[in-house]
Amino acid sequence: MAKQTNGLCKYCGNEYARSGMLRHLAACSERKAALNKETGSRTSGYYELLVEGKDKPQYWLIIEMKESATLKELDQFIRDIWVECCGHLSAFDIGGQVYEMVPSGGEFWGPPAAGMNPELKELFSPGLVLEYNYDFGQTTSLMIRVLDYRSGVWKDETVTILSRNNPPEIPCCRCGRQAECVDPERMLEGDGFWCRECLMAQNRRDAEEELEDGEVLEDGGPVQDDDENFMDEYLLPVCNSPRMGVCAYEGSEIYPDCLEPDKKAKIQQ
To answer: CB under 8 Å to 95, separation ≥6 — which residues?
Structure first.
């Protein structure tokens, strides 16, 4: 069973596990105060969504999204924060109806898929559960739950991240410190995670073993302790995503791995 992860509240910075965060967001005084301060005559509906790894629930997002947003915009957000690596295809499955960026299917492949142009308000309601899949070769599968709906002042932002899991603690297979890179071929065996220091030491040992008798690994050789490019080509960086270690995924170029709250949590006395 995957180890449970905590996350920070966007508004107050307090830390909770996923289930606790869902309860907290409904009662957070800082969130209520922030919403009460919003002004403007234009209004919009907002859906609160829980997005989590189907087989890796330690990775989770709680977001709020405008009802006028499309499935295409939700797909783009998921790509940007969690999965995009090589421009693979993706699809939503809502009650058996598939929605794809490039619709396919038909008489020989089952019911035809629809496009991702529908707005969320055409499809979503609290309680709905849908599935999202990215890359139909090395698939990353997510579950999306529609938690709530509210009306409020119009915001320019299509998506607001209310909380997300903190990066899981993944130990180096040699020393137990936080790992920095992963060997995709050995990841499932549990010994494919490395910190920088241990990987450099292993690379040096491997290089020395390849030398012929009497040869010495000189400074300036293939392995140096100050080499920033310490990872071999087949290794991938450890990142806060259910797609970590898959295909060529190296993390988000847009979103940091940790949520930065609007306020720091008050220290409990």
So the answer is: 130
